[in-house]
Each structure stands twice: as structure tokens, then as C-alpha cells.
């Protein structure tokens, strides 16, 4: 068996394992994450030297070595370097994925005073529902018109001017 077939087999098997891991993680999830109490992700060297790291290395090494014909030492070094690049791309993608995890940071009710929002619905008698940013996301919030203005238009920009007795007031 010539060496190009060996590297083709390595490339095909590692790509197949990668695709199987990908499909399993899409449909069944991947719960192999270490998070500390301060919500910082654990991305040490062990995440580089893992089964997934080995698979990524073999994908890069196998396909590069198969595509570069010839058995010179330069082709092996090039394939090795491409494999290492694949592993570090995987490691960097893990870091980016951990950054995407959004930790909910509850805000105190008084912290919303001064924040703007948009009228979503009129509930009548000066009561409205607005959309405003709260806890890191756009949320609905029940408010009361404090100025006596009874007819805010839908999508009209308003500012939360006060909070008293579990009620938010807009101007």
C-alpha cells in the first residue's frame, strides 16, 4: 500500500469522526464545559491536547499530506504544521464560544431610572407596556404615565423617570 493511500485513510477516518462528533453535538448537545464560580471558562492546554484536538490535527495533517504528492521531509513538516494550525483554530473557536455565553446579570429596579424605551402597548388609564433593555436583553416593562399624558403612540420613545412602590413612571 502506498503512503498516499494511508494518508487518505487517515484524512477520511478523522473527517468522518469529526462529522459524527458534529452531528452528535448538534442533536444531543455537548456538556463538556468547565466554568469557574466567577463565570470564566477553563481554556487551558488540556483543551488543546484532547480527542477533538487529535481529530483536528489528523484532519489537517492527513489531507495536507495526501494533497502534497511526494515523500520528502518538507511535505511531512508542512502537513505537521497544518495539523497544528487546525488544533489552534479549534482552541480559538472554543475561546470564542465561551465568550458568547451570556451570563444574566440582574439589575436593581432603581437602575432602570433614566433608561429609554419604546411604547409597545397602551393598557388604558395611563398604563403602558414598553420595551427597554434590562438584564442584558430587551424586556417588556409595565409603566405608568407620571405626567398625566394619556396618549403615547406606539413606538414612541420614552424615558423611565422614576420608580416608587414597585411602579415605574415615564414622563
Automatic annotation (TrEMBL):
Residues passing through the membrane, by range: 6-28, 74-95
Q: Which UniProt keywords apply?
A: Membrane, Transmembrane, Transmembrane helix
Q: What is this protein called?
A: NfeD-like C-terminal domain-containing protein
